[in-house]
Fold this sequence. Notes:
mainly alpha, elongated
Amino acid sequence: MAKLECQFFPGTPATWSCAECDTVYGERCIPAGHSHHWGQRHPACIRCNQPLSYLGNATDAKPFWQQLPHFFSYPLQARALVVLGLLTLLNTFINGGLTGLIASLFSMAVLIKYGFAIINERGQGLTEAPSLADVLLNDPDHLFLRQMVLMIAMGLVVSFAASVAPSLGLLVVGFLTLAMPASIMLLAVDKSVRSALNPLKLMTLMMIIGWPYLLLWFCSQAIAVGPYILADFIIGDTTQQAPPGILTFVALNFSVAYFSIMLYTMLGYVLFEYQHELGYHTAVDETETLSEQEFLKARTLGEVAVLISDQKYLEARQSLRKALDTVRDDTELHNRYHKLLMLLDDQQALANHAEYLVQLFLDQRQPARAVGVVLDVQSRVANFRLNKSATAVTIAEQMTEQGYHRNAVRLLQNFHKHQPNDRFLPAAYLLVARTLIEYLGDDNNGRAIARYTLNKHPNCKERIELEQLLAIAVN
């Protein structure tokens, strides 16, 4: 299928769509869409509140012709190699007579059963080969027998068409040859011989895939004849040389089984790739991976992204506030709320919330993010200050370390007017004086602040550093 991306998080695959307003969402907008958190119904569209349709999990799948390395490597997995080894031994050492016939039928049954298991599992998006035991012990649909019935039915159809007119027989043979990959896929999905032989269904499937179906057919034919080309290359002209040895037969039988599994893998991947167009959705893992609070957070962030995209800022604010009442100290939700307040330019709310968010970042040892919040607010609120003096000093120190010297001075400006007796005032003004003198070249104001601090707090622990700073400034 064509690659679909979420409209609100570019680069992430789409998983849900709304037919009403033609909107496609990804997992970040509609998290855990099949979980019980959404209730009895499917998730609803954030824009129009209509039920959403699941797009499957192949919206970011590569076209099958770009997956050839995967198709070649799939039969080389450990589980698949067990099957390849069994088939190779059976086909190499089969004798004539009834025993040989039984062994041949068993070998064919194993290959076909295993092939349909690959189509089903690869069509579900699974990349690990199925085990032989699972295939032999679990085949409630009897796909081997259905495949045999299908081949017999095709032969009867061709015979009947040829009896009517030789040209009609050739036409039917050509159509069935072209439709063979589609027929195998339909049998794997519908488990019905009638469906796999229905020309309307076959045509529909081929038309849904479109022109890539011709490439699929060509690849199928190339894979199918691969062993025979290899046989001709290895054995060559038997009239000119000795008959092939046992190792040659082992290699040829292995290649037949290898190319067969490769073909089934490709057909399964095509089902996976075109699952949405074919109405064939992969099984959904219903295992709960999100707690109630994790789901609320993820859902709110997705909803807010959509609302902000539609410039519905007040609705987005309401959604975030509601979530923060439950998930109180989540930094991602609080940071999103901070960014939204920046968009709304609500200076009072921005300043009030920044005090809480800055402390939250510091508590979680994320000082760089705390500084970013203060820088944001300073760009909107002229006289912004932090009410907690310890927090203010810590942020100012981080600012100077990151090179935001003027912002650090601005944050601690007139500290003595707001908190004249605060125990952190000497530390705050030492930082301001040092920044002015050493980084901003403002010796006069730096010395004035240092002298003021020494006069007001002569016994502070920062006294020696302040005196050293005054001495440096004078020199």
